[in-house]
Amino acid sequence: MFVRNNWILAGFCMVLLLAPVAPGQENQPQQPEDQNQGAPPIPAYRAPVQGTTTSSTPLAGAQYLPVGGTDLTHSYWQPRFDLFGTFDTNPLQSPNGNEKNWTTWAAFDAGVDIHRISPTSELALGYLGGAMHSSDNAVENGIVQALNFSDTFSFRRASISLLDQLTYLPEQAFGFGGLGALWQPVSPAGTLSTAFVPGQYILGGRGQNLMNAFATQATFYRTRRSSLTLVGAYSLLHFFDSSQLDYREAIAQAGYNYQISERNTIALLYTFSAVRYRNVNQSIDAHTPQFSFARQVSDQLSFQISAGPQFAIYRIPTPNSSPLTSGTTNSTDLYWYLNTATTYHLRRLALGLAYSRGVNGGSGVLQGSIADVVTGSVTRQMSRTLSSGITAGYARNYGLTVQATPKTQTYGYWFTGINLTRPIGSTLGFTFSYQLQYQSSNAAFCAGATCGTNVIRNLISVGINWRERPLML
Question: In the chain, fewer beta carbons within 10 Å around the N or the C end?
Fold first, then answer.
């Protein structure tokens, strides 16, 4: 009954947020340097939210804050296309060096980035679809689909945001390098925080998986400096070609934002999350009160942090019961939660760094974990439409004592990659990329038919990419 009531509560919060509505790359569109191309200028619109000094992206919301707030002032769309060849030393992510030798991939993708601004709404959408074909009959081909979406409706004293992130990939998303390390669609300004996206931080072998995270967010402006934000979210992680653990998560969050000065904002918020596993009578509930602070150091540099205690309640099947029986035992633990991000933009250079820690669903491998995740990127704009960059990430997952196993397993996974683009004209470029993936564990794990304690993988890609200049809507 308690489990069912939690799900009813989370669903009720989402219905309340949806009722008023009647109907995470950061590249911003660059205006053409050559103004003699004959194309009319893209018209500008006034900012959606008027009469308030608070940002249209609230600190107590579901998104990371963009640098300088929401600064999109034009409606445009921008298509893209990539064609790659990749050399892969371990396509099956086999442990202990049991990799296949130099499998090759032929891959392509196409996508579009759309931004539409009006006096009362702000829509941003990035989509990418593609496929990977293997030269080895023992390695299955893969399909790639990715979508980032946000739409904000602004009223006199309130705003409603609809946010969604979706991926359909042949392996885990964290560190995925199957399309020359350029597979991500262009993200809306202020992507979903990692707290609202199912973790995919452990290499578990090859196989198509679906991740989707959806959030509805309502912000009510009380004064020019203060506002109340409510969030209802639902996410899932599902594996089609492997026996990894599927799970769902419902999140309800409420917070109060206050802008103490032109560049400093604080927030108090409370988050409730409920994780449920498919075909396993096991659950994790987490209660997380937080204090959050954000500083706009300059128009180019911003910083935000949110921290607080995290109370986790585990429910596991009683001994000698079947996985679907109602008998459970409960245990409670106290952890600390932290989520922080820093972004910096200067002309053609962009830097980002983020760290998060907290209770996680276990990435389909563990039945719950404490995940420490660090990501970083440096991007250099090579032309109006093409860029190069360096990305890196590290994730440490410490298995919770939820399942009845004699020892707790820990995974440490890191990746790093670089892509270099040489422009060929204003919209076409030649790209070279390299990526390294490495994972180790304190106990043996299996990926496919092989088992071991570590995985290492190298991917080398060359390709052609095309990015049209922003086109007026």
Answer: N
